[in-house]
UniProtKB/TrEMBL annotation:
InterPro entries: UDG_Type-4/5 (IPR051536), Ura-DNA_glyco_family4 (IPR005273), Uracil-DNA_glycosylase-like (IPR005122), Uracil-DNA_glycosylase-like_sf (IPR036895). Keywords: 4Fe-4S, DNA damage, DNA repair, Hydrolase, Iron, Iron-sulfur, Metal-binding. This is Type-4 uracil-DNA glycosylase. Belongs to the uracil-DNA glycosylase (UDG) superfamily. Type 4 (UDGa) family.
Amino acid sequence: MDDAADTQQDGNALREALLAALSLQLGWGVDEALEAMALDRTVPRPEAATPGVAAGSTAWSAPGRVAGAVRDAGNSAGAREEAIGGLFPGDAAPSSPAPRRPAPRPAEVLAPAALRAADLAAGADSLEALKAAMERFDASLRDTATNIVFSDGVAESGLMLIGEAPGADEDRLGKPFVGVSGRLLDRMVASIGLDRTRNFYLTNILCWRPPGNRTPTDAEVSLFLPFARRHIALARPRHVVLLGGTAAKALLGAREGITRLRGRWHRLEIEGLGTVPALATLHPAYLLRQPSAKREAWQDLLTLRRALDGEVPKGF
């Protein structure tokens, strides 16, 4: 019984020590991993010719050593840090690093899913068929979302606005841009005589909400891009507005940020449709965080209004 109690106590102390180490790293500003796989320090290391270490022993002992050192250090954070640091002596490193299994490359992981997305998108011959294909597409985001968010507005209007991904309100109602940023967007476009119930069409690159309203990853955007491009081809807009950097960079294949892309017309090449004028502008969610940028957004709206009134976009 005493041995079991000691083992549990050591395990608790080890957990506390590791949590303290993570807290310390967060305090230092560490916010990303540099290796694909974590180094398991509970596994004995290879023998090394280290001064003071007898042959046949290892420079790294069982986890109990960590627990014991932390327990002995007391409650002082500085003492704990010193105790943990002392268990990782620089001169005790093995002569050659332990072999690690190479992490799979993103292309290897996403290739089958990406091919299936492209096939499903290409096979859709109507907006209804495209929505059904997107609902069938097996994506991890689908498992954490409530509703598919496909589109809103008038598909035949000739004007298509494209954002990045649904938020919580959109996920709940199944329509794009119905939250706070959506209401701001409605007021913005109303200032130049536009209304989603009459003369424009709305969608996003992603049709499923990322958990926690986080920004979509590059892999997720790439995975859903075939659906977005097919959506444009089927809606056949005469003008496209790209809301925010994620949508603009993905559809234009650009590396510049939205502040460099906004305010001018770009040539958007869509299979089955040809070249469509695309205006990049700031996302309404960004304007809620940076109200001072509304001046630039207003200039973009005027640029859009002139095009809708018959002005040929520069370069077309």
